[in-house]
Amino acid sequence: MLANALLLSTVAMTVFLFSVAGAGDYLGPYRWVILRRYGWEIALFLTTAFVNMTALFYVAGRLLFLKDTGRKLAHVEKQLRTRSTIAQELSDRLES
Are 91 and 81 a contacting pair, CB within 8 Å? Predict the structure, then answer.
């Protein structure tokens, strides 16, 4: 799940950077001045934004995809503990 959140954050950050780079064409001659003067601040902002987006996608994934997981797992465990289960092989492994 963390890998999915990292992938989505990377894609979102790449789209953001390309859109900002496309909108800032007129700043081309001043690129090195801006990077030399504000490089650390830009890097800190991008790192913070990336971490926050990763956390946002991780929480959203947990809320959307792990809904009612405990109830589903309890149902599967109850089914495995009975004698007449579909997965008899798994029940045998649990007993031993």
Answer: yes
Cβ atoms within 10 Å of 54's Cβ, excluding its own:
19
Per the CB < 8 A criterion, the answer to whether 12 and 60 are in contact is no
Could you give the CA distance from residue 82 to residue 1 in angstroms, rounded to a whole number?
32
Structure tokens at 87: 């997965």
Measure the CA angle with vertex 78, ends 75 and 81; round to 5°: 150
Closest CA to 16 of 50, 55, 41: 50
Mean per-residue pLDDT, 30-46: 92
Mean pLDDT calculated for residue range 84-92: 64
> Which own/partner contact pairs does 26-33 have at CB distance under 8 Å and 24+ positions apart?
none
Determine contact, residues 81/92, Cβ cutoff 8 Å: no
For the entire predicted model, the pTM comes to: 0.67
Placement of tokens 């789209």 in the chain: 15
